[in-house]
């Protein structure tokens, strides 16, 4: 384990990787209404001028992130399956062939969830992934069980995978990829000697795994967890630094900026 000071003494060979929702943006009941906390885009842009890598790795589509951030911030959408370079978005080759299947899954999920008669369920069609959300349901416990049952059935019938989220889950093609792959890949490409990941949800645990591997080869790593009432227990346990929410993340990012040698 390294402390945050390890991130600022050689910024050119340091990577700062972050999740978006719940980390840089408050969680809202309708994902399309979210936005980064005020001050975050400017702070990241400034960090990006000094650090080797400043990257967002989100479950959202890259297209949703592009408008909010400047050129110094790398954008990875769909857990790393999409990468945005100078506004041009590319989809990973092994994921792209599943687009039509996943579109059918999204349509079927909409029908099936509508048929449950439960208010407040949301199907988010992300092209090659489908998000199912029950945050707005009156009884989130019951809604979660029903949506999880439908998702399990869809996954089995279509031969696809699912992964958990906060009051949400995600249906995805049967191809292995994760936020952790982005951390591994960029650390290798840039020869990073220090790296941190800041996240709040289940999908961020793969990035913690990647940091732990990098630490084995001598990279200074910092696992940062963003707390909430829905914080996954494993994330809380593994976080070396725990921040109280997006405002605390902003303060922490500003403290990194202030600590960069000039
Ligand atoms: Mg998140």
List keywords for this structure.
alpha/beta, 2 domains, 21% strand, 8 helices, Alpha-Beta Plaits, 12 strands, single chain, binds magnesium ion, four-stranded antiparallel β-sheet, 262 residues, Rossmann fold
Structural class comes to alpha/beta
Strand order of the largest sheet: 5-4-3-2-1-10-11-12
Strand portion? 15-25%
Largest sheet: 8 strands, mixed
Our count of helices gives 8
Overall number of strands: 12
Q: What's the CATH H-level homologous superfamily of the largest domain? A: HAD superfamily/HAD-like
Mean pLDDT across every amino acid position: 95
- Identify the CATH class of the largest domain: Alpha Beta
Judging from the principal axes of the Cα atoms, what is the shape? globular
Give the topology:
Layout (H helix, E strand, L loop, with lengths): L13 E5 L21 H11 L2 E5 L4 H5 L7 E4 L4 E4 L2 E4 L7 H17 L6 E4 L4 E4 L6 H19 L2 E5 L2 E5 L6 H12 L3 E6 L5 H12 L3 E7 L6 H6 L2 E3 L2 H14 L3
Parallel strand pairs: 1-2, 1-10, 2-3, 10-11, 11-12
Antiparallel strand pairs: 3-4, 4-5, 6-7, 7-9, 8-9
Helix pairs in contact: 1-8, 3-4, 5-6
The structure holds magnesium ion.
Magnesium ion binds next to loops.
Short account of what is shown:
With 262 residues, the chain is α/β, with parallel strands linked by helices.
Report on the architecture of this protein.
This protein has 262 residues and is of the alpha/beta class. The chain is built from 8 helices and 12 strands. It folds into 2 domains: 172 residues, 3-Layer(aba) Sandwich (Rossmann fold), CATH 3.40.50.1000; 77 residues, Alpha-Beta Plaits, CATH 3.30.70. The strands form 2 sheets. Strands 5-4-3-2-1-10-11-12 form an 8-stranded mixed β-sheet, sandwiched between helices. Helix 3 packs antiparallel against helix 4. The protein is globular. The structure holds magnesium ion.
